[in-house]
Design a protein that fits this description.
- The protein has 318 residues and is of the alpha+beta class.
- It has two domains: 127 residues, D-amino Acid Aminotransferase, Chain A, domain 1 (2-Layer Sandwich), CATH 3.30.470; 156 residues, Alpha-Beta Barrel (D-amino Acid Aminotransferase, Chain A, domain 2), CATH 3.20.10.10.
- Helices cover 26% and strands 27% of the residues.
- Strands 8, 9, 10, 11, 12, 13, 14, 15 and 16 form a nine-stranded mixed beta sheet that branches.
- A hairpin with a 3-residue loop joins strand 14 and strand 15.
- The longest helix is centred in the first third of the chain and has 15 residues.
- The chain is globular, with a radius of gyration of 20 Å.
- Bound molecules: pyridoxal-5'-phosphate.
- The site of pyridoxal-5'-phosphate has 14 residues, from helix 5 and strand 14.
C-alpha cells in the first residue's frame, strides 16, 4: 500500500562539492544549516529505460532544472552551475552509473553553513545523485483520503518552490493517511478548496470536462501536470479547465487521477471510502497514462523533445 522507498547505493557516482564522487564518500556535518532548518531545495526527475534502444530517456530534464533554479532563488541559494551545465552534469552521472533500469535523479541544493542561526545567509552546496526507481505507487487505482492537514499556504512557505522543509507537511499527511489504511492523502488549501495530493497534482473528470486546481491553490506547479494538460488538449481534444475545486467534487467526479514525476499518472478509485466512477481506472485516465508512458519511455510523434536520451551500453559501469 502507498508509496515505496527506493534506496541510494553508496557506490554510485554523484555530483557533490564541484566534482563527481562516489555517494558513499560524501559526508555532511550534523551542524549543516539545511539539516537543522530545512533550508534546501530539490528536484525529482525520472529517466526511463528503453530496452530496445539501450537508452535511458530523461523526461523534461531542462524544465526540472528551470524549476530548480526558481526554487533556489526563493531561498537565496546560489547555484554554481547554469541550467545547461546542470543538465550536462546529470547526463554524465547517468553515463557513469550506466544503470540499465528506470532511474530517479535527485538534485539538491542547500544552505551548507555549519553554524547555528536561522536566516538565508551563508554558502550553499549542490548535490545530484540517482537511485533506481520502479513505480512509486500502484498505477491501477489508489484509495485516498482528504487529509486533516491543510497544504502549507504560499503566505507561509512558498508553495511553488520545491523546498525540503515544506515536505514535513507532506510527511504528516502521508503518515496519517497510510496509518488509516489509505494509499495517499489529498490536501485542501487553508480556505478549504482541493489543492493537490502528497506529492502529485490532481485532475478530475466531471460531466466530460477535465478540471484541475489553479496554480494559486498552493500547489507545486507540476511538470507532469503540464504534460497531462498538453496531452489532453492535443491528443484527446479535451482542454483542461483550471478552477477552484470543492472537496465534494471529488465524490461526484467520474474520474480522478494524479500526475507527478514520482506518481506518474496514477488513477484514484476511492476518496474517503467513496467509490470514484466505476471503481476502476477510467477511460480518460487510462488513455493519458498510456500516452504519457509512450512519450516518456518510447516515443510519441510530436513529443520527441520531452526526453533526452543517454546511451548505456552493457558493462559500461565505471
Ligand atoms: C508537492 C508536490 N506536488 C506536485 C508534484 C508533481 O510535480 P512534478 O509533476 O513536477 O513531478 C510533486 C512532485 O514532485 C510534489 O512534491
Amino acid at each position: 500500500m502507498g508509496s515505496k522507498a527506493f534506496v541510494a547505493n553508496d557506490a554510485e557516482w554523484c555530483y557533490h562539492g564541484g566534482e563527481l564522487v562516489r555517494l558513499g564518500d560524501v559526508r555532511l556535518s550534523p551542524a549543516t544549516h539545511a539539516l537543522n532548518y530545512g533550508t534546501g531545495v530539490f528536484e525529482g526527475i525520472r529517466a526511463y529505460w528503453n530496452e530496445g534502444r539501450g537508452t535511458l530517456q530523461v523526461l523534461k530534464l531542462r524544465e526540472h532544472f528551470e524549476r530548480f533554479e526558481r526554487s533556489c532563488r526563493m531561498l537565496r541559494i546560489e547555484l554554481p552551475l547554469t541550467v545547461d551545465e546542470l543538465c550536462d552534469t546529470t547526463l554524465e552521472i547517468l553515463r557513469r552509473n550506466a544503470s540499465r533500469e528506470d532511474t530517479y535523479i535527485r538534485p539538491l541544493a542547500y544552505k551548507a553553513a555549519e553554524a547555528i542561526g536561522v536566516n538565508l545567509r551563508g554558502e550553499s552546496q549542490l548535490t545530484i545523485f540517482t537511485v533506481p526507481m520502479a513505480d512509486y505507487v500502484e498505477l491501477t487505482g489508489l484509495k485516498v483520503c482528504v487529509s486533516s492537514w491543510r497544504r502549507t499556504p504560499d503566505t507561509s512557505i512558498p508553495a511553488r518552490g520545491k523546498l525540503t522543509g515544506s515536505y514535513i507537511n507532506t510527511a504528516l499527511a502521508v503518515d496519517e493517511a497510510q496509518r488509516a489504511g489509505y494509499d495517499d492523502a489529498i490536501f485542501l488549501t487553508q480556505d478549504g478548496h482541493v489543492s493537490e495530493a502528497s506529492a502529485a497534482n490532481i485532475f478530475l473528470l466531471r460531466k466530460g470536462q477535465l478540471l484541475t486546481p489553479p496554480v494559486t491553490a498552493d500547489i507545486l506547479e507540476g511538470i507532469a501536470r503540464d504534460c497531462v494538460m498538453e496531452l489532453a488538449e492535443k491528443e484527446l481534444g479535451m482542454p483542461v479547465l483550471e478552477r477552484d475545486v470543492d472537496r465534494t467534487e471529488l465524490y461526484a467526479a467520474d474520474e480522478v487521477f494524479l500526475s507527478g514525476t514520482g506518481f506518474q499518472i496514477a488513477p484514484i478509485v476511492e476518496v474517503d471510502g467513496r467509490r470514484v466512477g466505476t471503481g476502476s481506472i477510467g477511460p480518460v485516465a487510462e488513455r493519458l497514462q498510456n500516452l504519457y508512458f509512450k512519450a516518456a519511455r518510447e516515443s510519441l510523434d510530436g513529443y520527441e523533445d520531452w526526453t533526452v536520451a543517454v546511451e548505456v551500453a552493457e558493462g559500461a559501469r565505471q
